[in-house]
Amino acid sequence: MEVPFYEYIVVGCGGIGSAVVYWLSRRAGKSAHLLFAYKHKTYVLFIYPPHVRRTQVYQTDASHFPCVSQISMWAEAEKESGIQLVYKSGSLDFTHKGTAGEDLFRRYCKAMDDGDIPYDLMDAKELQERFPQFSGPGVSGLVALLQKDGGLVDAASSNAVHVQLARGRGATVMDNTAVLKIDTMDDGTAMVHTSRGRFRCRRVVVTAGAWSNNVLGSLGVHIPLVVSQEQVTYYNTTNMKDFTKDKFPAWIYHGDPHDIYGMAIHGNTCSKIGIDCGGFPVTPDTRTFIPDPRREEQCKKFIWMHYCIGPMQYLGPINYTKTCLYTMTYDRSFVIDSLKSKGKPQVVFCIGAGHAYKFAALFGRILSELAIDGRTDLPIEPFTMDRPAITDPSFRPIYQNKLSTIPQAASKARL
Ligand SMILES: Cc1cc2nc3c(=O)[nH]c(=O)nc-3n(C[C@H](O)[C@H](O)[C@H](O)COP(=O)(O)OP(=O)(O)OC[C@H]3O[C@@H](n4cnc5c(N)ncnc54)[C@H](O)[C@@H]3O)c2cc1C
């Protein structure tokens, strides 16, 4: 039987895969072909800082700045669909004076000054004047940095909008289809073996998140990654009106040993709180969907004992806790590349490194250009595979908040 041929196949339909298929469909129409294995992701909201934050990479490495300046790529799908995807609730970083978090702030401020990115620096009093929701005893000694243009991307809507627009242009989307392996062929095409048969294509884009090495492994490539099981908790509060997006920013506290983040109420969700890199290493097969009560307690204490308490009650009973996976490179920076240097230019791939949602629309465009044109004008040099975190076996992980254990398999795995 003849194997169906498509110009492009995209493996994975998370935030990045759905954006790739959208951008492919703008230029390639029906020849974009999307495959995805499991269910659609259901993350609801993501912090959307139009700058830099949350990881050591951001503070020390200006390489993310060009991405930041292109983050408005979301506007393309918003314009086309007429559906709002980005909400500028503002984003607030805060920390305690005299801590490592304050050093981080200095570096942020310098980076933003250099990049001409506006922000407001506030002490505790100014913070409380601006956001009276911060009313707990722990507020004293805080320093805070507000970016008015920061906010949220509605991830569920964004994925759906990208996919729908692509489908509207004729892209084929195959649900519940697992990619089992990829072979590169002598004629320069790729053969994609799936749970629903084989497909041949000119270019294949792999955006398989935590499963990336399962897919890339069949091509003899292994990216050193740590996958961790993270969680976010949603709390009910009767005081919803003080925590809506027009009154309350997306926020992140830079602490030791972890950063803690949260955001305003959006849509039918409650207020959301999570610990950045607070989880433990897993694989997609060993992960559980069971919330860790210690982390729920830690978040609750953080909010209740220190910040948003009193008349402006932020916390109510837990509505639910959702687990999910971070897929992190050892430098916690992205990988956006093709396997051209391995003699397999048919294959393009991306690893989001646990903080890529805000850039999904941009990365979708970049990956579509790599697939169609074999190149992009957008600045991806810092994100190629050719860097120590991927190639140097002695590279030590530099997450801002280290996970307690790096699994043996991951530490040995090198390209
Ligand atoms: C708790 C949490 C909070 C986060 N907060 C933020 C934030 O505030 N800001 C931010 O920018 N980012 C944040 N992120 C990170 C962000 O979610 C990811 O970087 C981004 O979603 C990665 O997108 P992706 O498309 O690469 O992977 P995913 O969204 O994981 O998608 C991969 C897809 O590939 C599919 N797949 C896997 N294997 C196969 C196969 N063999 N065949 C076919 N399909 C396959 C999967 O089913 C999945 O649908 C957060 C992540 C978590 C877990």
From TrEMBL:
Keywords attached to this entry: FAD, Flavoprotein, Membrane, Oxidoreductase, Transmembrane, Transmembrane helix
InterPro entries in UniProt: FAD-dep_OxRdtase (IPR006076), FAD/NAD-bd_sf (IPR036188), MTOX (IPR045170)
One Pfam short name: DAO
Cofactor: FAD
Transmembrane segments: 6-24
FAD dependent oxidoreductase domain boundaries: 71-370
Domain of life: Eukaryota
GO MF term list: flavin adenine dinucleotide binding; sarcosine oxidase activity
Family: Belongs to the MSOX/MTOX family.
Entry protein name: FAD dependent oxidoreductase domain-containing protein
The species this protein was found in: Capitella teleta
